[in-house]
Every structure is written in C-alpha cells, then in structure tokens.
Design brief:
Strand content: 35-45%
Shape: globular
Largest sheet: 5 strands, mixed
Distance between the termini: 40 Å
Mean pLDDT: 95
C-alpha cells in the first residue's frame, strides 16, 4: 500500500497565469505549499509554507472542492493528498528555502512544462472547469 503525504497548497492566479514552483533537485513544477506541522491548522501551515518558500504573505480565499490526490511527484510509491485554497499574495514572491525556481504560467505554457501529476490532472481540470483558468488552445 502506498504511503499518503498530506499537503496544503495555494492556487495563486493573476491575469490568467498560475504561480508554480520547482523544488531543488527536482524537475516537476507544482503549486506552492507543503506539509503541515503538528498542531498547525491547514491555513496556518499554508501561510507558513508560503512565507518560507516565497518570502511573502498570503491571504487564503475559498478552498477548492474535490478529490485532489495523485502520485507524488518526488516521493516514489507515495500518494499526495492536497487541500488547495485560492489565494492572493502579499508581496512579490521570490524563490527561497527549498524552492529552486518559480514561474507564472499560462495554461498553454503548462502543456510543455514538466508538472507534478496532481497539477497536470485534477488541479488543472478543476481550475479550468471552475472558470479560474482558460481552456488550453488547440492546434
């Protein structure tokens, strides 16, 4: 049986661009966020993770509904199970802590970018179907 990794994530969308991050030593981009510490509420964990990883504050909005679980991008044999909030940043994000790179990407950019399975599948589907991101252009 695969191990479960529970995480909290922020879906930050500005002008039809989604903020994604790539951790050091990895290739897949994913939503910013991370694992809650013992005793933290999910939103406290999310705010702490964004402060540590991006050096800015966060105002969480509504939580996305749905089953956000898929194969973990960086932990073979594990399943990541995410709670995701739409959010606004307070400040300009910069890559910090374990984050090697951050990008603001369009849906079309995401067609060629290496993405974590959860982001490429269920998360993007939810964002597009919810009207939060546009449908990808077709060739």
């Amino acid at each position: 049986m695969a191990g479960i990794i529970r995480v909290v994530c922020a879906a930050v969308i500005v002008r039809e661009r989604l903020l994604v991050v790539r951790k050091q030593g990895t290739t897949a981009f994913m939503l910013p966020g991370g694992k809650p510490n013992a005793g933290e509420s999910p939103q406290q964990a999310l705010q702490r993770e964004i402060r540590e990883e991006l050096g800015c504050g966060l105002t969480p909005g509504r939580e996305l509904t749905g089953d956000f679980s898929d194969a973990a991008a960086n932990e073979p044999g594990h399943i990541v199970q995410a709670r995701i909030w739409l959010a606004l940043l307070d400040g300009v994000p910069v890559a910090a802590a374990e984050i090697a790179e951050l990008r603001w990407v369009t849906v079309d950019d995401m067609m060629t970018l290496p993405l974590a399975p959860l982001l490429r599948g269920k998360v993007m589907t939810a964002l597009v179907h919810g009207g939060l991101m546009p449908q990808a252009a077709t060739a």
